[in-house]
Write a structure and sequence with these properties.
25% of the residues lie in helices and 21% in strands. It is globular, with a radius of gyration of 17 Å. Keywords: Chaperone, GTP-binding, Nickel insertion, Nucleotide-binding.
Length: 232
């Protein structure tokens, strides 16, 4: 693992070699209007969580977003297995018309089944974590009252690079992309990439197979204060 200093502050950029992989498929056809954006956003201009918050009403929530198949659910599973012995955790998943991610986490025993809740958004998952996050917020509050968790992992449904969490819903945001779409994906930016607290670029060991240039991808390190290569 190596650290390198560059621009920005308080954000970590990770490359992951074969550490996180999805083992289940998705479908995310949808149609609705999106919040208008004038630019792909920047880290320094990102929205910050409120400075004062009562975590007895809503536990500290880590939002995990990213496109379909990037490795979000597998990351939630890995984090849960790593942290559950020392920390009180709960999980909320989002899918459009199924409970597939919930089923994956239950099957793989991420946490006891009653601590994992599923949201079926019935439309674009982007809206369910930003424009109208009321259902997710209520479930997070319910879990807080029932189990008093230290941390809740809130996984969004797979969506595009414009998707990002409302700071009223997520206190810390992780965004996961992978090299399967080529080196153009991270260069396109978008709030998920530019305004997350932690950007994970997954499956970099597959770069040569899909014709992605890691040198291009690694130019992103200059967006962040801290750059780490994690080789699992």
């Amino acid at each position: 693992m190596s650290n390198r200093e560059s621009g920005g502050e308080n954000c970590v950029f990770l490359e992951v070699r074969g550490a996180i992989d999805e083992h289940h498929g998705h479908s995310h056809e949808h149609g609705h209007t999106h919040e208008h954006m004038d630019s792909p956003g920047t880290f320094l201009s990102r929205e910050l969580p409120p400075s004062r918050k009562d975590f007895h009403k809503r536990a500290f929530t880590v939002g995990i977003g990213g496109p379909v198949g990037s490795g979000k659910t597998a990351l939630v599973l890995a984090l849960s297995k790593y942290m559950r012995e020392k920390h009180n955790l709960c999980i909320v998943t989002n899918d459009i018309f199924t409970r597939e991610d919930w089923e994956f986490l239950v099957k793989n025993k991420a946490l006891p089944e009653d601590r994992i809740r599923a949201v079926e958004t019935g439309g674009c998952p982007h809206a369910a974590i930003r424009e109208d996050y009321s259902l997710n917020l209520q479930i997070v509050k319910d879990l807080t009252q029932e189990y008093k968790p230290e941390i809740i992992f809130l996984e969004s449904g797979g969506d595009n690079l414009a998707a990002n969490f409302s700071r009223d819903l997520a206190d810390y945001i992780i965004y996961v992309i992978d090299v399967a779409g080529g080196d153009k994906i991270p260069r396109k930016g978008g709030p998920g990439i530019t305004e997350s607290d932690l950007l994970v670029i997954n499956k970099v060991d597959l770069a040569s197979a899909v014709g992605a240039d890691l040198k291009v991808i690694r130019l992103l390190k200059f967006w962040f204060k801290e750059y780490r290569l994690y080789d699992h």
